[in-house]
Amino acid sequence: MSKVTVSAQHIADLKPLSIVKDELVRQRFIDLYGALWSEDRAEAVYEREAIHFNRLISENQSLRNCTSTSIFVAFIDLAVCGLSVEPGTRALAYLQPRGYKTGAKDERGKDIYEQRCTLTISGYGELIQRTRAGQIRHADNPVIVYEGDGFSFTDKGGVKSVEYTLNLNHDTRKPIACFMRITRADGSIDYAIMLEEDWRRLAGYSGKANKKWDENARTYVETPNALYTSGEGNRIDSGFLMAKCIKHAFKTYPKLRIGRGTTYESDEAPVRDDDFYGIDPNDNPDPQAAEESFAPAPDTSAGVTVDPAENQTVDDVF
User: What is the pLDDT of residues 227-274, one digit of tens each?
Assistant: First the structure.
């Protein structure tokens, strides 16, 4: 493990776009990546991710408004997870600003929030992590079931099975389910199933997570992710539904190692784990749990097939 330490004040004094280019931060990332994944590739991975990371920061004012410490933690978490924030239709991870209570209140007695940068792992990134961890062998592309298709799901004695028949004349304006077939490490088959009631419930959670105070109405306004209604007939977007199916497929699977500034798309707040950051704990106050997100999660595209033979190296497209 890296022996490089960084003072919290040093990080706090850095500007958002200077953090990943700082020499101490650079060495911390390279040492940590080398210890966890590959010493030979650590420096090349740093150079690549520093470019992607700073491009995302520079293009998003909300991310530039995040605290320096949270940006540092999110960047180091990339080394912990062994993923990439390279943008694309099948992005493995992305940066998301979240609101956190500072513990202080304004003159009206309302809680004061500050923006913190969070590394969010997409469903595709989670699939790669679980394949590397040996939890799954393969995952098929999610399949959307529309009104008019034949579909049934059974679970007998813990053995799940799906029967699906495509109807070429189905109504693409009315998705009724989505499922994904997973081959576990031992060769057994698992299925992830989502029904319309499931994504309607998630839309409600999204609205609560993205609520904002309306001064004119003097109340909070809930604004769910627009992708819940951007598809045909104001239904959920098809690519977004497939990504949701992926990320909710592993609720019962063992947890994976992630950093304290990292969350999965389905999590409400970052999950705290080991300290990989090399910051003096007496100089780095614990963050409070997030209560409000200021940005909806982006669509991470339309399905994925993950095969261990195609994802053996840590350096391969992360």
Answer: 898 888 789 998 889 888 987 888 778 888 788 888 876 554 444 445
Whether residue 144 sits in one domain with residue 126: no
- The whole domain housing 242 covers 136-222+233-251
Same domain for 17 and 123, yes or no, is: yes
Same domain assignment for residues 264 and 128: yes
Examine the domain organization and report whether 164 and 106 are in the same domain: no
Q: What is the pLDDT of residues 196-226, one digit of tens each?
A: 999 999 888 888 877 888 888 888 888 888 8
What are phi and psi for residue 138, nearest 5 degrees?
-160, 150
In degrees rounded to 5, what are phi and psi of residue 10? -60, -45
Model confidence, pTM: 0.71
